[in-house]
TrEMBL record:
This is Class I SAM-dependent methyltransferase. Its EC number is 2.1.1.-. The keyword Protein biosynthesis does not apply. Keywords: Methyltransferase, Transferase. InterPro entries: SAM-dependent_MTases_sf. It comes from Flammeovirga kamogawensis. It holds the Pfam family Methyltransf_24. GO terms for biological process: methylation. One of its GO terms (molecular function) is methyltransferase activity.
Length: 261
């Protein structure tokens, strides 16, 4: 199914040519297309490599849809890193989004080992990030990495998103960005969207990871982009963007996004 979806996406996805929305043109030419690299990326990627070499086994509590490749309770850190971390390209794109639009208050649903958290949190010194991880053992490993980035303001919460979501949101002055990368099932994704939506403002951005990961995630994505609260939605296949911008006509875009992987 993913292969067919990808072929369809590649056939339909556009680029900067023909983009009549000034905001989306800027988004594409300044954030999606460039794939820039900053000095902090080397430090983050060094941590990824350390995780990929770590044979230590930990007990994992999986509250989401799980992994397609490894759902055993006891897993090595390197196996978790191999299957659950965002790619360097995705991390760079998250960083660019935060930097370009000067978002300051970020909520991440699904910390994993913290690589995506660092990309979200290191674009500026005045960023506040609250991140939720369901597995205590994974959360501990992520916190060890966060401690090596003392200039970041990351609050790590451990437990079920169902129980922690509202209290996590209230730790931030406002909700500028939510990165949804936890439970890739339909009902939880829609539930988290609806609960976070109540705290969104005109410039809020919701980022959804793996929007074609499964039939349920695909259904959730197409349900969300139809929501009247969403002004502009962008399908990049691997990632979906939802901007709440209500001051312009509702529009949906499918744009080329090179992963270089």
């Amino acid at each position: 199914m993913q292969v067919l979806d990808f072929i369809k996406y590649k056939f339909q996805a556009g680029n900067a040519h023909g983009l009549h929305s000034p905001f989306v043109y800027d988004l594409y030419t300044q954030a999606i297309e460039p794939n820039k690299k900053y000095y902090i990326f080397d430090k983050i990627e060094e941590k990824r490599q350390q995780l990929l070499r770590n044979d230590t086994k930990i007990k994992v509590t999986d509250l989401g849809a799980g992994s397609r490749k490894n759902n055993s309770e006891s897993r090595s850190i390197k196996s978790i890193a191999k299957t659950s971390l965002c790619s360097e390209r995705t991390g760079a794109f998250l960083f660019e989004l935060i930097s370009r639009y000067k978002y300051k208050n970020i909520l991440e649903l699904g910390t994993s080992l913290g690589i995506s958290t660092l990309y979200l949190s290191t674009a500026a010194k005045d960023i506040s990030t609250v991140t939720i991880e369901g597995s205590k053992s994974i959360s501990v490993e992520a916190q060890n990495i966060f401690n090596e980035f003392p200039n970041t303001n990351i609050t790590s919460l451990t437990g079920n998103i169902d129980d922690l979501l509202e209290s996590a949101i209230k730790k931030l002055p406002q909700l500028d960005v939510v990165y949804f990368d936890a439970n890739h099932k339909f009902d939880p994704t829609i539930d988290y969207f609806e609960r976070c939506k109540k705290f969104a403002h005109e410039n809020t951005l919701f980022i959804f990871d793996d929007i074609y990961w499964s039939k349920e995630m695909k259904k959730a994505w197409f349900t969300i982009i139809k929501d009247e609260a969403i002004g502009i939605s962008v399908d990049l296949f691997h990632i979906g963007l939802c901007f709440f911008r209500q001051k312009q006509p509702k529009q949906h875009f499918k744009l080329q996004y090179e992963t270089h992987e």
